[in-house]
Amino acid sequence: MNHDEIIEFAKRIRDFELKVLQDFKKSIIRGTVHCCIGQEYDIVKIISQLKEIDSITSNHRGHGHFLAYTKNFEGLYNELCGFKSGINGGKGLSQHLHQGNFYCTGIQGGFTPVACGIALAEKMNSTKNIVVSFIGDGTLGQGVLYESLNIASLMQLPICFVLENNHYAMSTPTKKAVAGSIEKRFESFGLQKGNIDDIREILPSYIIIDTYRFCGHSGNDNKCYRSKEEELEWIKKDKLNGYGLI
Fold first, then answer.
1. Strand 98-99, strand 102-104: pairing
2. What is the rounded distance in angstroms from the CA atom of residue 58 to the CA atom of residue 232?
3. Does the predicted model carry a pTM greater than 0.85?
């Protein structure tokens, strides 16, 4: 995808997420939802470089990752509604999605060791396939992440860890929860900083995306822990120029 195509597809994802929030409030959507409004552009930019046979592991905020990989808007929406026509028969709902080589779970950091296992299998089979493992800044507090970084580096696995730093873990600002340098947490295990324009260039690697979620943590979150002024400042930085937010 070129820049304009990335923008347009990212807008489709934002439209989808805005509708999901509306329908959640109408009790059309079952369970809970964790939307990625504000984080769409870099998601599409990274995943558009992947091949269908590459693998992606995601997390509780995985709608955008799923849509960028599968483009299956109808299947995901039906899943969120709990319909049998959903991608997982309406049983996985928002946090537990699977299609092709896409996997996600609501457990913080839960899929990072699985991602390493997939990457190890690809290495052992001498394929050119890679794994992208999306995590949030809240996952920096999970020990299993560091075990995964250690294994990825020791075994030189074809994997890239993508940290979407939206500056909040639920309602806790990252600056109040993460000490020291985020970059050095990866570099201390020997991982190199990846190239967002060529995801395959350096592996194993990490990429840190400085982003912001304009929605709450989940569908019921009223965002009372942050100011309107802060949101307006981030809208100025939005890579979709405030699309759907203004």
1. antiparallel
2. 28
3. yes
- Tokens of residue 40, six digits: 């769409």
Residue 243 falls within a domain, yes or no?
no
* Region for 110 from its dihedrals, namely left if φ exceeds 0, alpha if ψ lies in -120 to 50, beta otherwise: alpha
**Looking at the 3D structure of the chain, how many domains does it have?**
1
Q: Give 80-92 pLDDT, tens digit per residue.
A: 999 999 999 999 9
Q: Is residue 200 part of a domain?
A: yes
Q: Please give the residue range of the domain that contains residue 51.
A: 3-237
In a domain, 244, yes or no: no
Q: What is the CATH number of the domain that holds 164?
A: 3.40.50.970
- Cβ–Cβ < 8 Å for 129, 159: no
List the structure tokens of 211.
């982003």
Name the H helices within 88-142: 112-124
* Rounded CA separation 185/208 (Å): 11
Task: Indicate whether 74 belongs to any domain.
Answer: yes
> Chain centroid to CA 182: how far?
17
The tokens describing 229, both together, are 């002024």
Q: Say what the pLDDT of residue 220 is.
A: 85
